[in-house]
Amino acid sequence: MVGRPQKIRKIAGAPSVEGFIPKGPRRGRQLRGRGRFRRHEEDIFLLFEEYESIRLLDYEGLNQTAASEQMHVSRPTLTRIYQRARQKVAKAFIEGRVIRFEGGKVNFKAEWYQCTDCESIFNISEKKQEVMEEVMCPLCSGSKIIVYHAADSLMDDE
Amino acid sequence: MKVVITSKENNINSLVDPRFGRAAFFAVYDTDTDSIEWLGNDVVDMQHGAGTGAVNLLANLGAKKIFAVAFGAKVKPLLDELDIQMVIVKENQTVANIIALLKK
Lengths: 158, 104
Ligand SMILES: [Zn+2]
What we know:
The complex is a heterodimer. By secondary structure, chain A is an alpha+beta fold. Chain A contains 5 helices and 7 strands; from the N terminus they run ββαααβαββαββ. In chain B, β2 (25-30) and β3 form a beta hairpin. The two termini of chain B are 15 Å apart. Chain A binds chain B through residues 106, 109-110, 118-125, 127-128, 138-141, 154-158, and chain B through 19-22, 50-51, 65, 67, 70-77, 80, 83, 85-90, 98, 101-102, 104.
C-alpha cells in the first residue's frame, strides 16, 4: 500500500485485548465457530489511533486540545479520528458486530516504522518508546520516519 | 554497541543473508571499536538449533540490534523479551554497505 507518509501518532498503550465479541447469536445469521475470534468481513476494525482517542477523551476525560497534544496530531485531525472511532463503536453496538483492534498480533507488542531514506523497517519496543523523544533510523540515523502498517506480512514461519 | 548482520559468507563484501534463522554467518559488529567477529551458523546450530537458538547465542554476546532481510515469526517474541531490535533491510546489499550506513 502506497500512501502519503503518515505522521507518527503516539499511542500510550496497546489495547489489553484483541477486540470484543457481541453476546448471543445474531438474528438472521448463523453463529459461527464456537465463540472463536475468527476474522469475518463484517467485523469492525478499530485502528489504534481511534482506540487511543476514545481512551484519552472518554476514559481519561481529557479535552480535545490536551488529547491532540498527547497524540501528536492537530486538533482537527484528532476530531476526525474521534468521530470515526465513535461511528465504528456505534455501528458495532447497534448492529451486533465484532470489534477488532487493528494492527495484528505483532503490533500489540511492538510498533513498526520505516525509514524513508534507506527504506529499512524496524520495530521499537514499548519500553523504549516511553523514553524516546523522537524516532531515528537504527541503520542510517535518518529522521524521516513513517509508521509501517504491514509488518505482519514480513514475518514468515521458519 | 554490538549489532548483528546476517551474511552469506564470512567477509564484508558478502551479501546479506535473506533469512535470519538460516543465515550462513552472523557478522557481530562492534560500533565502538569498528571490529567484526564472524560466527558460522554451523556452530550456532550445533550448540543451540536454528532460529530461537541463534537468538540466545547473539543475546549472550550482547547484541542490541539485528539486521536481516526477514525474521521468523517465532523469534519475534523472543527478541522483544531480550530487548533486541529487529531491523529489516533491503535485499541485495553487502555487509560493508550496512556498516557504512551505520557509520553515517
Ligand atoms: Zn534509514
